[in-house]
Design brief:
Helices cover about 50% and strands about 15% of the residues. By secondary structure, it is α/β, with parallel strands linked by helices. Strands 3-2-1-4-5-6-9 form a seven-stranded parallel β-sheet, sandwiched between helices. The mean pLDDT is about 90.
Length: about 260
């Protein structure tokens, strides 16, 4: 398990300028971690970096990258694999959803989503885990989703892959001092749904919405305990448990939730 409390460490976070990724950056900086922040929007990236440096006195490196671009993804992977500047924690957070159903989306758009949710997680985890296992410490947090347990199209399918990969990697590398954990949030009060053009108030009952600060705080606590998966709140734990008991045909009827 990585050393995150009471010692110097460096965390690399993708999708670090908004939502869950930004909250990880804030809370890790507050714990004293130096940061490497990855995002597409260069100006916003520099603004966030400046705020974190000023507020917490940590070192913040920025790298502007579009993870759908293979060359730019390789640049991030190379930073993770650099033995002279080791990264102790990788947070694979970058991602986006699609409002329309599968056949209503151009296949290139579906491919871009797959590239960020699956290919980037695979490539960056591979780059990070090599050095971490050699050093005998480190960790990866893969931001997945409760939707991984529900039949809701390619987004859910991608997140199901993230869960399966994370659990396998957790079991594979825990004995070498490296913890890999999947974080499975539900509806979180971030920009995610706004970017989809989805009405937050009408997309899900108010009791299902989570605050990002509590989500990340609990996720880091689960990670520090060496857990393979973090599911926030009793509400979502109950949903995940129920999804394992309810017939798939019934779950399929729930797939419109969040698409209003």
């Amino acid at each position: 398990m990585t050393c995150l409390t009471g010692c110097m460490s460096t965390a690399l976070i993708t999708g670090a300028t908004a939502g869950i990724g930004h909250e990880f950056a804030v809370q890790l900086a507050a714990r004293g971690d130096d940061l490497v922040l990855i995002a597409r929007d260069t100006s916003r990236l520099e603004q966030v970096a400046g705020e974190l440096r000023s507020s917490y006195g940590v070192q913040v490196e920025t790298l502007s990258a579009d993870l759908t671009d293979p060359a730019q993804l390789d640049t991030v992977a190379a930073r993770l694999a650099d033995p002279t500047r080791p990264v102790d924690l990788l947070v694979n957070n970058a991602g986006f959803g699609l409002k329309e159903n599968f056949l209503d989306n151009p296949v290139d758009v579906e491919q871009s989503q797959h590239d960020v949710l699956v290919r980037a997680v695979l490539r960056l985890s591979h780059a990070a885990l090599g050095g971490m296992t050699e050093r005998g410490h480190g960790g990866v947090i893969n931001v997945s989703s409760v939707s991984a347990f529900l039949p809701r199209g390619t987004y859910s399918a991608a997140k199901a892959w993230v869960n399966s990969f994370s659990i396998w990697a957790h079991n594979e590398y825990a004995g070498r001092g490296v913890n890999v954990m999947a974080l499975c949030p539900g509806f979180v009060r971030t920009e995610f749904h706004e970017r989809l053009g989805i009405d937050r108030d009408g997309s899900a009952p108010s009791f299902l919405w989570l605050e990002p600060d509590r989500l990340v705080r609990d996720a880091l606590a689960d990670f520090d305990r060496g857990r393979a998966m973090s599911i926030p709140s009793k509400r979502y734990k109950a949903i995940v448990t129920g999804s394992r008991l309810v017939p798939r045909s019934v779950l399929q009827r729930l797939q419109s939730l969040g698409r209003k």
